[in-house]
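Attaching the record inline, Q. Sequence:
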Amino acid sequence: MKKACLFSPLALIAGAALATATEAATFAVDISWWDNKTDWSTVYSPYWGAVRLDNGYSGYVEGTVSLPHAGTWEILLRGATDETYYNAQDSLKAYIDGALVFEENNTHPEGTNRVFEYAWTVTGDSFTYRFDFTSKASEYWSHMLMYKGQATLVPLPAAAWLFGSGLVGLVAVARRRHH
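Structure, as predicted:
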């Protein structure tokens, strides 16, 4: 009977850890920057939630993304240079929750397209973003694009589950000694 009492909390913790790890491994959501915008100037969405500068030398889009539930999330930011045009003066800056995540300049050779990716971790059930586009030599559009993003739930590390189960065990032993 005593062994069953000791193993029940451990089995419960192990099951919760497995369920959380499984959920996190498969739980990802796509982010359309355009659909979540709260303010913008001189930008547009040419397709599939991508964002780029439109008919101006500078522009921005900013917004708030609500996530399905609170947790630690890895935000994937993907962008690219436009292979059709080469303009070394085009640039793109990305901010998450006010922090600069990256600054990219269009330095690719003409006729090539360079895709870039950055990951950023946020905690909670929402985050804010801002993308600043500039094009000093083009009055039509920036040759930099921001594609849809993706948020993936980060699993709780195994060490945390091990620490938690050890804590539960110590509490159980202390209660047993007290009674």
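The beta strands are 28-31, 37-41, 43-44, 52-53, 58-81, 90-96, 99-105, 115-135, 144-146, 149-153. The longest strand covers residues 58-81.

More tomorrow.
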